[in-house]
Each structure stands twice: as structure tokens, then as C-alpha cells.
Amino acid sequence: MTAAVAAAFRDEWARVVATLIRSTGDWDLAEECAQEAFAIAFERWARDGVPRRPGAWLTSVARNRATDRRRRAAIGEVKSEEAARMWHPPEPPFEPDDSGICDDRLRLIFTCCHPALSMEAQVALTLRNLAGLTTPEIARAFLVPEATMAQRLVRAKRKIRHAGIPYRVPPAHTLMDRTAGVLAVLYLLYNEGYAATSGSQLVRANLTEEAIRLARLLVQLMPDVPEALGLLGLMLLQESRRAARVDAAGGLVSLEEQDRSLWDAAMADEGIQVLDAAVRLGQAGPYQVQAAIAACHAGAARAADTDWVEIAALYGELRRMVPTAVVELNRAVAVGMAIGPEAGLHLVDELDGSGRLAGYHLLHATRADLLRRLDRPADAAPEYELALQLAGTDAERRYLTRRLRECRAAL
User: Fold this and answer.
1) Is pLDDT above 60 for 26?
2) Strand partners of residue 42
3) Secondary structure element (H or E) that encloses residue 120, with its range
4) Which of the residues 36, 86, 165, 394 has an alpha carbon 20 to 30 A from that of 199?
């Protein structure tokens, strides 16, 4: 039964929360009642069995909990009969707004991505309510303390409530004001599914599939926005490799070691076509550059055929557009593959010295891999140990443990 509730949470959380926000207008109440509905499911499904439509069951229970809580809150001021009429309105009809998009979850993204909120708050709030990520998971995605992220979430919901930000896809003439936030949200939503920050599974397919679904809706809404196309192309290219990224035991399989016959060629071809459509619009952006990097990998029949020189150049362009430490780390990997491990290691050491990726397990995993390629197992082993201590998923820990054993065996 635990598995059934967990599967329902993965598949239905966003839909339940989004529906409750639309019907109640209260973000905290929607989230709390959704949580209560899943807790009730855990108890009742064990006794009565899993309902035929788990999402509808959960939404109904959550809506009833919200109605009960709001009725109780009103009883102190009005008579019970009046309270019931006030807090039990009919479900509002779901009508298209100016956008023509009938999707509660896309509306939720656009509400979260109102320009009155900071970019960090926009992304964090959507990951919490759309993806159901915990505050610690979101904090890890942003590389900030959990307390800091909790405060951001509270402030964001308070601002939405006090400013009366409407729950809808905005009119066409205001869409561009929110595009950057919406793209960032979808990008991080996909990334959390593609490489989870914690838990037993590296890949959370429900999140990657939901991100792709929403990205398709966004392209439908904004067909002439190059970066919307670029992001969809990137997602499709990355997703085409999903089946090869984890082995039978649930361990991470590096790109170099993946069985490329498992890659989804049709999905990769679609991703390249979408990227080409973005490029034809003549306005380059970071999502298009990342999609171009993914396309380089997709075009290599064997790992040895990968054009690492081109990939390193693309990362250089990406660093110019998005000068973050994570981009620099990825560029170091590409340089190490294109020129040699020593060159990559030099860039990693510089990045480590800056302190910008302190506590980031992939920094140590990257250094360890470069040292392994230099045939320096005694130096690589401590780095693998550090990465192992910091890794957030079981799949990554299994991979790092295997590499650590290989280094120790070579001593």
C-alpha cells in the first residue's frame, strides 16, 4: 500500500494542489489539505483497496477537508447554516482564459512566476506546489540552507495572497514578463526528475514527463519564443537517454558506459527538429546552447565518436550567457575530454579554490574521475570518498562506491 500511495503522490500531487488552489484561493490550505488527503489514503486504501481513479479520489477528499476547515473557521462568526453556504460553493467551472489553455498546472506555473516575485521565489514556490518537492530537496537544488529556502517559500505565498495575484495564464501581451521564470521552473522541474537531489531513485520519471508535457503546452502557447523551443528540445534530447542511465540494480551508468542501443532515437530526432526550429528564429539563448550540447551526444554512435571539442566550445558560450559555477564545472569536464585530464583538473582546482561549490558532491566526483583518467588512483580515492559522503541518491552512491573500490584495487 505504501507503494500505491507513493505512486499516487508522484502522479497526482500537482493536479490535486493546483485544483485546490483554483477552488479555494488559499495556497497554504491547498497544500495542507492535499497532504491530509494522502495521509487518509494511506489508511483507507489499505482497508478498502486502491480506488479506480486515485487522482479524483484524492482531489475529492482534499476538497472536503478544505471545506470542513474553512467552515469550522467561520462558525465563530456566523451561524452554521450560513457558514455552510459561504464555504461550500459549487466547484467553479473550468473555462479557458485569454490563453485558451485549459490546464490547472500551467496556470499554477504562471501564477508562481508573477514578476512581483523574485526569480528564486518563483522557481522554489513552483517546485514545492507543482512537483511536491520537500523544502530540503528544493534547498539542495539551489545550494542554500534549508532554513533560507523555508523563509523564501513563506514570503512568496504571503506576497501572492496580499497582492491578490490571480490564478490564471496571463493575457498574451503580458506573457513575456513571465517567460524567464516559467522556463526556469520547467528546467529545474525536469532536472529534479532527470537527476534527483535525494532518495532511492536517480530518475523520477513522473517529473520529467510532466515537465515535457508542460513544455509542449508552453510551446503551443508561445510558438515563436526561441528559448521555449530550445528548452523543449533539450528535454527531449536528455529524455531520449533515460532507459540507459540506470542499470538493473538501480545504479548510475555514466554517459561513457551507456548502452546506446537503449537510447530512444525517435525522441532524439524530435528534439533535434525542435532545436532546429528554435535556431531558425535567430535568437540564441542558454537553453538552445544546452540542447546543442545534448545533440552532440545524441549524434555520437559510440562514446569515442563524441565531438568533445565542439562541446567544450559550446560550454564556453554557455558560460558567457550563464556564468555559474555549475556551468564552469561542466566545461571543465568537456575540456578534460577534449584536451586532456590535466587541463580539466586545472580548471576544477581553480573552481574549488573559489569556494563557490563547497559541499557539492559533483565537484569531488569530477576531480576523482579526472585523477582516475590520469592513472592516479591514490589521489582519486579520497575524492571519491568525499563525493560518496555528499551524494544525495542511492544510485549515485552505488556508482561512486564502485569507482572507489576500483581505485583501491589498483593501489
Assistant:
1) yes
2) none
3) helix 119-129
4) 36
> Which residue in the block uniquely carries the three cell numbers 464555504?
87
Of 227, 189, 232, give the one whose Cα is nearest residue 208: 189
Among 341, 221, 226, 214, which Cα is nearest to 286's? 226
For residue 93, pLDDT beyond 50: no
Q: What pLDDT does 84 receive?
A: 40
Return the DSSP state at 77: T
| Closest residue by Cα to residue 139 from 129, 131, 150, 130 | 150
pLDDT digits (tens, 9 = 90+) for 383-402: 999 999 999 888 889 999 99
Residues 6+ apart with CB under 8 A from 146: 135, 136, 139
- Measured in whole angstroms, the distance separating CA 121 from the mean position of its chain's CA atoms is 15
CA max distance for the chain: 79
- Output b/e per residue, 217-227; b: 16+ Cβ within 10 A: bbbebbeebbb
Select the more confidently predicted residue: 22 or 199.
22
Cα dihedral 157, 99, 223, 132 sign: positive
Distance spanning both ends of the chain, measured CA to CA: 47
Identify which has the larger pLDDT, 213 or 109.
213
Burial class (CB in 10 A: 0-12, 13-18, 19+), 254: exposed
**307 vs 134, residue with greater confidence:** 307
Q: In which band, very low, low, confident or very high, does the pLDDT at 74 lie, cut at 50, 70 and 90? A: low
Instruction: Provide the 3-class DSSP secondary structure of residue 204.
Output: coil
Cβ-based neighbour number of residue 120 at 10 Å: 16
110 in helix, strand or coil?
Answer: helix
Distance CA 151, CA 146 (A): 9
Residues 72-88: what's their mean pLDDT? Answer: 49
Tell me the C-alpha distance between 109 and 170, whole Å.
Answer: 11
